[in-house]
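The following block was generated as part of the benchmark described in Methods. Ligand: adenosine-5'-diphosphate.
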Amino acid sequence: MFQASEKAGILLALCGLLLIGATSLGFSTSQYAMNLIGQIAAFALLALSLDLLWGFCGILSLGHGLFFAIGGYLVAMHLVKVTFDATGTPPDFMLFMGWDSLPFYYFQLDSIAYLIVAIAAVTTVVSFVFGYVSFRSRVTGVYFAIITQALVYMVMLYMFRNDSGFGGNNGMTGFKEIFGMPASGSTTAAFLCGGSLATLGLCLYGCKKLVDSPIGQFMLAVREDESRLRFLGVNTVHIKLIAWCISAILAAMAGFLYVPQVGIVNPTILSPELSIEIAAWVALGGRGSLLGPILGAVVISGLKFILTGLAPDLWPFILATLIICVVIWSPNGLADTSSHVASFYRRLGSLTSIKGRSQP
Amino acid sequence: MTTKQALYVSGLNVSFGNFAVLKNLSWTVDFGEVRGVIGPNGAGKTTLLDSLTGKTKYQSGDIYVKDTVSIKNLTEIEIAKLGIGRKFQKPSVFSGLSGFQNLEIALRAGHSRSIYQPKLTSRQREKIHETSELIGLSSELSRNAGTLAHGQKQWLEIGMLIIAEPSVILLDEPVAGMNSEERGKTAELISNIRGPNIAVVVVEHDMEFVGQVCDTVTVLHDGRVMIEGPMGVVQADPQVIDVYLGKEAASASSH
Ligand SMILES: Nc1ncnc2c1ncn2[C@@H]1O[C@H](COP(=O)(O)OP(=O)(O)O)[C@@H](O)[C@H]1O
Ligand SMILES: [Mg+2]
């Protein structure tokens, strides 16, 4: 299982790089497929980020959409700035406000290096401050989950305002170019998809290394019995902060990859629904296994893509049925199904051996 | 510097709301001792350990460890770092981790400079194996701690304390739920732990076990020290007989 996640990480990264290489050599792919795979890869990274926190450190966040949105909004601001520099007109939502140039906080965001630093800095500061205050006051479990949800909801309400400079309820869209490429087209889609796969693969590999390291062992110990660890003299706030901030950065990276591929960001990514859905991916996939939640995100968001087109009204029922089935048959998630199959065969085997023995 | 007094408790008062659990309790334990603390259910034994380890804040009084260090304003983490290890009444090990990992975490925790160092040194590995032999779990090290038997979990937890080389070890009901063979092993383990630079406190119900492993016994009753002395003396004390037999008679008649 563990060996598997290392291999899968390397494989994903190679696939991504191969796709990028082939595309730059002129190999052409289906734009729809690239877009679909790329978006799902971003969701998978988001699932991985929550799994690291919840599955390995026992901290459930129902507000991870916040960090996804930090990455997503900042990359959208970069794209808006680039478009503004090219056309000289600010986006519609700013024109409606009567602004003829971008607000000061778009300063320098046209530089990709600055963008990356900004995403890292904002995510780290926000997660560190929130985490430090909560973990130090020993807010845990359900209470922590609830305040993370409240936080993401509060930010969503703010982002709905049109005067915030982030597009209000319509969000930001209409990007002219993406990282120097035309905003739409199969080449752009393939590059973004390749980049997303490679990032997912590298992060999976890195997470595997982290959970196997001493810090990862201490994260597991926090999950198992935080109080025991304190009475051994360990300041668990440090460990939780490390897990929380790394997880936040992974989620922000997912947002950074996601928004250019859908071409829009708006406050729905801050809605409690998305944050809860992330937890559903992880729970269905199997928290505490690195591959499981990735599988969960792929299966659920893949199904969602297909079914919301075919039968949009049925989607909530299908999701609910899926969750109930997994909870009943495989409480530890999809990652655990293989062990169920194995134990089924074991039982089958012992049944037949009992029969064999009872025969004269 | 030589220290003599491992624990010094003076005029300790702990209450929950209006309910006073420890009442003006004064008590000392020296290094080199194995001290028993007995008393009926609800006497305040666990609460005393809670106060000593920073789990419960006390309203008034003083607690000094290693002669001079007041723990009044310390957190449980800082107190643990002073070398005060505690086994909880309910066995507390990291169930999802192996026995080896449990000991490794405790070892790293006890040496704050090397807590996240990537690889264990060979000396550290040796130490984990030595400890596992001491607690009789050397063949169970790769097993998930959650799947160990109740008694084995207790020993693992004791192992997690001793691997950090503490000055004081507080054991809350270490033989609860054990059969007589396991009790014997636990008694042996405690006599192996004892030494001139360590104080061991054993909180127990089981008089026989306490008599076997402890030099001196403190009887706690109703939040106060009722009597203190060698087991033979304590057991013959009419007050103690009254408290214990009274309880037993009451619980026998209620069944
Ligand atoms: N956190 C708490 N809140 C309220 N009452 C408590 C608390 N902890 C212990 N007590 C009470 O204090 C008394 C002593 O408990 P305890 O120290 O656990 O006894 P012992 O370990 O000697 O059996 C009991 O009556 C118990 O109900
Ligand atoms: Mg008790």
